[in-house]
């Protein structure tokens, strides 16, 4: 497997520029790597043709907070999409009062080979006088965008919404936003696209089992749950056709777990421990390649300031000690974010180093195919040369 030495995408004044792990913030398109992160109160991106030398940051839009959890990015092999949270104050001259609207904005763009993005007009996907947070975006197989979030009205509750349009505009579909649970908590919501415009929506909160419901295009399935409980919002998921692979950090024990969802039975299978007894913030992230091999990345254990991964290709392979950042030190273990899937046989990982501003936003990738020289040698040996 080919590995690129880590590079610095750019610096940030934000200590949580790449937060949260369950959101996606990077991809590969038009012979470029693209990484989104927060810089102060701005959402920005940089791109690179080789994964080593990066363009200067480009501002996309303002954010309501400095943390990267205020936005989520998705790439569907044609367009890049974002969902970003911000506030809007509206003054009423009749009452002399100002009302704050908490909103999630949606936008679609085309990533260009010169490192620019041609954006469509921004649309408001969600608007409320109640607090909204942590948008998580995906796009289904028909090009229709979905956004998960949690809403604080009387209590914190998880929601998912979708658009009935797939042309870069937003029109909220009938039956949405859909409330996933009545339980009050700080939720992560992860919409995962399946085939034929179906969707699997995962939602979890610290101290409770991870919940999920599937959408078959017209109705929701019943709620299902994992056997183990979640630590904070540390979960990540990827689909394989209509099945879903989920990794998450187990509460208290801090085991990094893997479990597969089976669409036909609408159930989770048995859980596999990928790493026992990690740290309380070793948030795992998951990706897959074109052969549906899985890759789970995490940081901080068994050695601090190291990043590890395990690969599944029919069986889980041994842990790989991949990146050593002991010189600059990881900013935190829960700042990893990776490609949803491989693009051009590459899986990218973004994370942060340094413990004081300016922080480094760092990037590395795995090539999921062997070098040509290695493959040729294997071929020669196979024919007895």
Helicity, as a percent range: under 10%
The average pLDDT is: 94
Main sheet overview:
8 strands, antiparallel
Q: What's the level 1 CATH class?
A: Mainly Beta
Total domains, how many? 1
Quantity of strands, as a count: 30
- Separate helix tally: 1
Specify the overall morphology.
globular
Q: Radius of gyration from the CA trace? A: 20 Å
Instruction: Please mark out the parts with pLDDT under 50 across 5 or more consecutive residues, or reply none.
Output: 373-385
Secondary structure category: mainly beta
CATH architecture: 6 Propeller
So what's the oligomer here?
single chain
* N→C terminal distance: 24 Å
CATH topology: Neuraminidase
What would you note in describing this structure?
With 385 residues, this protein is mostly beta strands. It has a single domain, classed as Neuraminidase (6 Propeller), CATH 2.120.10.10. Helix content is 3%, strand content 51%. The protein is built from one helix and 30 strands. The protein has one helix spanning 372-382, and strands at 2-3, 7-12, 26-29, 32-39, 42-48, 58-62, 71-75, 80-92, 97-111, 117-119, 123-128, 131-139, 145-152, 156-162, 178-179, 188-193, 199-204, 209-215, 224-240, 243-250, 256-262, 267-268, 272-275, 285-288, 294-299, 306-312, 320-324, 337-338, 346-353, 359-367. Strands 16, 17, 18, 19, 20, 21, 22 and 23 form an eight-stranded antiparallel sheet that branches. Strands 1, 2, 28, 29 and 30 form a five-stranded antiparallel sheet that branches. It is globular and about 65 Å long.
